[in-house]
């Protein structure tokens, strides 16, 4: 079972869900939410990372709009609300909140020092920006939406970044994928995997486009990447 913690910034305070591993000291991973808030899917991912030996934390990045958003992808009304939140969200402020989360979890007595990040959907874009704008030791982006408009930021990238791209992603069209791959494929710090036939959120358990085999493949690659980069 996870616990709740509060992170305080100069703009205000927000909550985060924390799951602890059995080890007294471990690397930390910040789990960056989709457009549905810190819901059961995100808490399960956070718990799963703790089970793999990481101190995992999932901050409520929608707190500036409305704290405590916890919705699913199972109804039309929830999708409508999710896109309202997505459109109201301030990406730059979100990255600052992730930086504050990294600083907070680094100070935790259970953190061995290194901190990674993994994000999905909106969180996939934020994971990319976490890699370029914060002192995270490593970051993983799952089907990030909007990366194609920010590829120039990769010039600032000094730490390892892993990208998972769904080749049939309805929110990241082929042209956008082409821009991302062309700009980033030769970057020394970036590893990219594409998933043929997969749509957006292929790793979201219970989602419409969930694919167990490729979710497992991407998850294995993510854990291998964290093992290599976070120790």
From TrEMBL:
It comes from the Bacteria. Residues 14-229 form the Dienelactone hydrolase domain. It holds the Pfam family DLH. Keywords: Hydrolase. GO terms for molecular function: hydrolase activity. SUPFAM superfamilies: alpha/beta-Hydrolases. InterPro entries: AB_hydrolase_fold (IPR029058), Dienelactn_hydro (IPR002925), Dienelactone_hydrolase-like (IPR051049). This is Dienelactone hydrolase family protein. It comes from Phenylobacterium soli.
